[in-house]
Design brief:
Elements (H helix, E strand, L loop, with lengths): L9 H39 L4 E3 L5 H10 L1 H4 L3 E9 L8 E9 L6 E9 L11 E12 L3 E12 L7 E2 L12
Parallel strand pairs: 1-2, 3-7, 4-6
Antiparallel strand pairs: 2-3, 2-5, 3-4, 5-6
């Protein structure tokens, strides 16, 4: 049988404790650094992916609306499909309308109408306020400046969605869909 006596002094224990703390911190920094690097590389990959259809839902509606206005050329030629209500202004042509949603802008539920300008040959078949699901192609158009315009290829009346409202664009939105 082998017996070993080790005398542990307080300075040796302090050195061991400091070494353990430093080792743990190094491991934490490595893990955090890897996750940060991995997440930023995924964002770059998503930005390079070219999908032909823009996915629009309640959660990203205003993010895509804002990004498409700021980066029109990135969206031109993309297919888009989403639901909204028909909204017209006095200076629209007969074939034009906004496929709109109401965006909540304050804590007391005040809202403004936001949406995509659409052009459709049979737009007059749909009354103002009618909920529709529209599919189309994004093109560069002009309405008081360059804006994305949806050339509608298919549109059908639908019922109002469960959540009719959308919320302001997120500051953390990363475009990767167009």
């Amino acid at each position: 049988m082998f017996v070993c006596n080790v005398k542990l002094g307080s300075s040796w224990i302090k050195k061991l404790g400091v070494t353990m703390v430093v080792l743990i911190l190094v491991i934490v920094f490595i893990v955090v650094g890897y996750r940060f690097y991995d997440s930023t590389s995924r964002v770059r990959v998503n930005d390079e992916v070219d999908t032909s259809q823009v996915e629009v839902n309640v959660g990203n509606y205003t993010d895509i609306l804002k990004d498409s206005h700021e980066n029109i050329d990135k969206y031109v030629g993309k297919e888009i499909k989403f639901t909204g209500f028909v909204y017209r202004l006095y200076d629209f042509e007969e074939c034009q309308f906004v496929l709109a949603r109401e965006m909540i802008i304050s804590s007391d539920n005040q809202a403004v109408v936001v949406g995509f300008l659409c052009e459709c040959d049979n737009a007059d078949n749909f009354e103002d306020g009618a909920w529709v699901e529209a599919e189309g192609i994004i093109e560069k158009g002009f309405y008081h400046g360059d804006i994305p315009v949806i050339k509608v290829t298919n549109m059908k009346e639908t019922s109002a969605p469960e959540d009719e409202y959308v919320y302001p664009p997120s500051d953390s939105y990363v475009s990767g869909e167009a």
